[in-house]
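Much of our argument rests on the idea that a fold can be written as discrete symbols. In the encoding step, the backbone of a single protein was reduced to a row of integers, each denoting a local shape. We regard such an encoding as a compact summary of how the chain folds. The record that follows shows the chain in one-letter code together with its fold in token form:
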Amino acid sequence: MKQHRTDLRKHLPTPTLSGLRVAVTGGTSGLGLALVRQLREGGAQVALVARTEEAVERVALETGALGLVGDVGRKEDIYPLALQLTGQLGGLDVLINNASSLGPTPLLPLADTDCEDLELALAVNLVGPFRLTKALFGALTASAREGRCAVVVNVSSDAAVNAYPHWGAYGASKAGLLHLTSVWNEEAKSLGVQFLSIDPGDMDTPLHAAAIPDADTSQLKRPEDAASEVLQAVLQALSPQEPEERFQSSLLGEPS
């Protein structure tokens, strides 16, 4: 006799943004700002992190998000940020490592790139997300144990896999982050924490303008559209899935 397996996922609620506890770095401009706005509109509890006090206060006032002033590229800022955001939010379900540094601006060949500019790109784009994730890992695993699920999004770039001239510092840091994300995902899946590497594409943002000042902005993606795609990926990751489906969702958005 053919046996029919009951799909218990049909009886589980579809995840929404409402009530999610989310931290977004680089949350005062570009993709980060769009993410904060859409998360708040969806009913999420949001903590945004950025370096400029005036910008943090402005966005916090506009959106009702918790605004924290800090630099993810500075080791000294990491644990105070982690303590503040988990304390204020009462835990953490989603971490979006969005803050980025180009390194040298204008962009330069590697032979002309100062070591300090390479170090800055690595500090903000690679070491910073590692430190912040490590500091928040206990809160994320606690969320998973409570059945809330937990997701870390590391914002990537096609420069992580393609060798673009003059993008060496940025590309090297994003390549490191891409691999770091894959390893984190393998190590954390048994604890219920998923890691996503998402390339949002070329967007009309201050970062892109600093990299390519004469770019035709009409050909660039709106940060709001990219933010919607990122949040859809988060919701998909939070959905009840079979193990093989969960593995596939962890690769969603990786540059190809």
User: Anything to note?
Assistant: The chain has one domain: 15-250. The beta strands are 21-25, 45-50, 66-69, 94-97, 150-155, 193-198. Residues 15-250 form a domain with the Rossmann fold fold (CATH 3.40.50.720).
